UniProtKB/TrEMBL annotation:
Domain Nudix hydrolase: 42-175
Protein name: ADP-ribose pyrophosphatase
Biological process annotations from GO: nucleoside phosphate metabolic process; ribose phosphate metabolic process
Alphabetical list of InterPro entries matching this protein: NUDIX_hydrolase-like_dom_sf, NUDIX_hydrolase_dom
Gene3D superfamilies: Nucleoside Triphosphate Pyrophosphohydrolase
Organism of this sequence: Rhodococcoides kyotonense
This protein's UniProt keywords: Hydrolase
Keyword Lipoprotein found: no
Record-level Gene Ontology MF annotations: hydrolase activity
Keyword Hydrolase set for record: yes
Amino acid sequence: MTERHAFETTGSTTVYEGAILALRLDQVQMPGGRVAEREVVEHHGAVAIVALDDRGRIAMIEQYRHPIGRRLWELPAGLLDELNEPPVDAAKRELAEETGLAAERWSVLVDVMASPGFTDECVRIFLAEGLSEVDRPEARDEEADIELAYVPWEEAVERALAGEFVNASAVSGVLALAAAKAGSKTLRPADAEWVDLPTTFERRKNSHG
């Protein structure tokens, strides 16, 4: 078997560093010897939650997204921006903050690389079952405008396929739930290993501390 090329980074420059991301330019050795520049957005990891109630409905939120300029229907979600916080704990926190819900049972539905052509962002999508209501912290900024709705999972699949749901985590989570219901494969536990969990941006921020 022919040995595959090793894409070695020969140089790197940080162009921008902000609150939730950094942009760097890497010089990468290509097959044949050419060195190409690659733009890389470093980002926190993130979690999203398919919160499924006992009537087969998914808790979904409509939230304003400024880069798109409109509101999108999404799953409850948030960044892994607290040092060493286990992803499932972040998911529990985000579910309570955005919907006022807690869950008895947690498992991993699917992991999604947002856009690996230019960013290391990865989202772990959990399935949360056995829902109950809890106190919701006071919301601020975009979250103060959130609308919560319960969507039957079959309808959610139809709306994703119809292009009504376009958020990557929402589409992935809804279709992964449908696939899980159609098959017999056991879902991963909530603390399953996450190989692609982004850590570069977190290490960068901690190095300034």
